[in-house]
Amino acid sequence: MRGAAKAPPLIREALFSDARNLWSESGIDLGSEGILHDAGDISPASPGQIKDAVSSLLAQGRRPLALGGDHSITFPIVTAIAREYSSLAILHFDAHPDLYHDFRGNPFSHASPFARIMEAKLAQRLVQVGIRAMNAHQRQQAERFGVEVIEMKDFKGDLGLRFDTPVYVSVDLDALDPAFAPGVVHREPGGLTTRQVIQTIQSIEAPVIGADIVEFNPEMDPAGMTAVVCAKILKELAAKMVTLEPVPGS
After folding, report:
1. Distance CA 169, CA 67 (A)
2. What gap in Å lies between CA 130 and CA 199, rounded to an integer?
3. What is d(CA 2, CA 217) in angstroms, rounded to the nearest whole number?
4. Are 87 and 165 in contact (CB under 8 A)?
5. What is the distance, to the nearest Å, from the Cα of residue 5 to the centroid of all Cα atoms in its chain?
6. Is the pLDDT of residue 250 over 60?
7. H or E segment and range at residue 125
């Protein structure tokens, strides 16, 4: 179902709403001058244009926090980031592994970004959290690429994740249980709570050098609840990105 392209303006609206403030839970005032910069929308958002836009931001010394759109945007974003970082880990929240070799004839679809990323060796480590829709093909792909998959049935609270390299975080909203984020197309019951996602992000003890929030579809969110969840996750991601500095040339 189309509709995710309409998400960024609604996430911005929720973020800057008078109903809430721009302080993160860690005490960072994201409204302070020089912290958040809105680079605007990429339209049309072709893979090449996404990659070039992210490369431009990186050249300016900025760290991209992208709002999707569907999960196909992650591959060109990570392609640009991997040019700047020789070692990179990805923390991926999702109900689905998105490791299809070729989904319905499209190897660059929303269901395949992490297959392309790992094939191209853009990341040395991929950790997936919240998975609960794994099939045989994607399980084989995970084994092939050495993916660390934390399925929901095995989720035990504090994951104790440790990273020795800079981290890119990709948040697919359907990682959350539909009770917390109904505004997604591929609703998968039995997922993460908003608090579990936030706590996992807050526990990262490595530089977070980029992130995306994807697959929010306003067409499935009549009450506007999921937009607010996106804004909350955005704040905690942004706060984490400004509190741990990356090592130049790492």
Report:
1. 12
2. 13
3. 8
4. yes
5. 15
6. no
7. strand 125-131
